[in-house]
Structure formats: C-alpha cells, structure tokens
Amino acid sequence: MEGICGKRASIIDAATLAAQIAGxxxxxxxxxxxxxxxxxHVARENPAWLAIGIDACRENLRxxxxxxxxxxxxxxxxxLTLPGELRGLATRITINFPWxxxxxxxLDGDPAFRDGLxxxxxxxxxxxxxxxxxxxxxxxxxxxxxxxxxxxxxxxxGFDGGRAAMLDADxxxxxxxxxxxxxxxxxxxxxxxxxATWPPRCAPYVGSVYPEQAGRASxxxx
Length: 222
Ligand SMILES: C[S@@+](CC[C@H](N)C(=O)[O-])C[C@H]1O[C@@H](n2cnc3c(N)ncnc32)[C@H](O)[C@@H]1O
Known about the structure:
Elements: E1 2-5, E2 8-11, H1 14-21, E3 26-31, H2 37-45, E4 49-55, H3 58-66, E5 72-76, E6 90-96, H4 100-108, H5 111-120, E7 121-132, H6 133-138, H7 143-157, E8 160-167, H8 169-173, H9 178-184, E9 191-197
Parallel strand pairs: 3-4, 3-6, 4-5, 6-7
Antiparallel strand pairs: 1-2, 1-5, 7-9, 8-9
C-alpha cells in the first residue's frame, strides 16, 4: 500500500508494516481522514496506540503527515478497495463526516465496502461514524433519516449493539477533526454520531474513541 509523509510517497510492504505496528496494543484506523488532524491528535494523546489515517486525496495529507508523531501513519487509498495489508489490525475504526463515494457506500450498504471494512477489524473492534447534514443532503437524505439509514445498514452488515446520538455545537467542538470544528462554528452546527462493535466481542466495549464524549446522552436507533 502507499504511504505518505509530506511530499514523499512510499510503498509500505508487509515487513515495514509489521515493524511499525509491533508493540501497539490499540490500532485506530480513520477512514476518509481528510487532512489527518484527528489521527495526529489521537497519536499525540495516546502514545501506546498506532493511529492510521486513510484518504483517497493525497494533497490534503501532505501538511500534517510531514511532522506527524512516530505512532501515526498515513495511507493513500480508496476506501472502497481498502489495502489488504491492514487486514485484522484495527481495534477501533472511525469514519468522520464522510462524503461522496464513502458516504454513498454506507447509505447504499455496498457489500464490497462492508467486506473491506470488517476485514480491517479485530474481534471486538469498535466503529464510530460522524455524520453531517450537508453531505447527507447532497446524497439525498435529511440528516436524521440518513443517520438512521446508516444505523440500519450497520445492523444488516452484522455490527453489534449500536448507539446513535445527536450532536449539537457543544458536542461537535469536542471532536478534534477539521470538519467537526468547521461545523461547530458554522451556520448549521449539528450532526449525528453512530457507534457499533464488530462481533464477536472479545473484550467489553469501553465507550467512545473520543474520551470527551463518554457519558453523553444517546438514543437507540429505530
Ligand atoms: C468531509 S471530509 C472529512 C475529513 C475528516 N474526516 C474530518 O473530519 O475533517 C470527507 C473525506 O472523505 C474522503 N473520501 C471520500 N470518499 C472517499 C473514498 N472513496 N476513499 C477515501 N476517502 C474518501 C475525502 O477525500 C475527504 O477527505
């Protein structure tokens, strides 16, 4: 698979990846990572974790990947054909404010995307998805209906449990992603958060990958 560090792209082969992941007890994979701000934040805050950001757009990743911490890795890839090298690595998967083909794959329940997504997961891995109105509107869904649609897709795909929570401006401000900030301070500061676990569980689900969000009110999706 193709890694990126500033302007320099390089092939990350199995041996290089094995050396990079050695010793990390938690591996977070952020799909559609954008400029990588969230991955950098997670890596800085959690030195015992490896944080991997994936995006199809290399230009966005050039800045942050240049001076990322050692426990952050950035990969250029299409989420619809996720790199096989990442198979079975993730203890946590995040998809923050997807748009375009990534969002369409979630809304449509694309079976190829589902297979790639669950292939990333270790047993018991958590999945968190953040959604915003503008992207869902472009895909033809009102915000809440789109969030419920994706919650339903996750259930059909076999994800376990599932929590859905509406996010207001205060909640959005707590998420360290560029789009969360943009939304929180914009004209329409709201979104949805969905979370689920990939069975079988081998460890109790310990909550959000965003520690600041622990304990926020949530409702079960219909
Ligand atoms: C609204 S941005 C969100 C970026 C970041 N997660 C954040 O919260 O700031 C959506 C991102 O999804 C990426 N994306 C959309 N479709 C994709 C695909 N099929 N494969 C990989 N990335 C994709 C875009 O390149 C873009 O960076």
